[in-house]
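Weekly modeling sync, notes
Attendees: S.R. (lead), two postdocs, one rotation student

Agenda item 3: backlog of single-chain predictions. S.R. asked that every request posted to the team notebook include the full sequence so nobody has to chase files. The rotation student volunteered to paste the first one in as an example of the format we agreed on. Action items at the bottom.

Example entry:
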Amino acid sequence: MEMSLNTELARKLEGDLLEGNKELMQVWNEVDQKSELKVLELENIVAVYGGPDCPINEAVGLGMYGPVQEEFIEAIEEFYGSNNDDTEIRVCPLAHKSLVEFTQKRGYVLSGFSYRWVLNLESWTSPVMVPDSRVRPAMPQDEDHWSKAVASGFADQDNISQTADLTLEHAFFRMKSSIPFIAEEKGKVVAGGVLALSDDVASLFATSTLPSYRGRGIQTGLLDSRLQYAKDHGARIATIETDPGSASQRNVERVGFRLAYVTAELVKHRR
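Predicted structure, as returned to the notebook:
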């Protein structure tokens, strides 16, 4: 299968993220009855708000299927403004050029970048000689340990506070399309990650390792195990997102991913 970067591939990858966010929203509100993950759905666009510190507060899909309608950007800004938050828009470089025009005119500024990677699973062979015996698909009874380990890794702590909010991690674990993977050393859960299968696309995300267990090849094991599982279950494309220049970037390159494009995050600060 040809894997050239074009609008069709970008729509597939961004559309997979959009559908994943919609699925996550449904599960989030089942996990946490006290707070509600709010959503605004427009034509091929989803904007999410889960509280002031929620890491998925952003609008996805703008400009992916043609010129941007300014009234959609206005509606998104109203949505975040009604929640007393800044407006953040994810911008794929293959989005319609009108998105740049409108965001410039409306005062958006650049807040960061992320790398979107792809892997052709049809031609992929694992570079790992022996599967990592520490890694396995998680069982339902692993949910609490998995959630704590993943949250701890993201917080850069070995032991996260007992009062930490793990709503996002529990929601990731319970998503209908999710197959969580877990890594253990001597009976201790030290890392975790998610594989989500949708049609022929395998998305890898929420990969996290406890700080004191980094540098032991665990993330590579988690990547390889999920990719092999995805290939065995009919996925043709794998995708993952990393921060530029991160250890995660180096790990995904080692197992065969290649850069598809760089995504920009634009923000309009509320006044």
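Discussion: group reviewed the output briefly. Helices lie at 7-31, 70-82, 98-105, 143-154, 167-174, 218-232, 247-254.
Action items: rotation student to repeat for the remaining queue; S.R. to check formatting next week.
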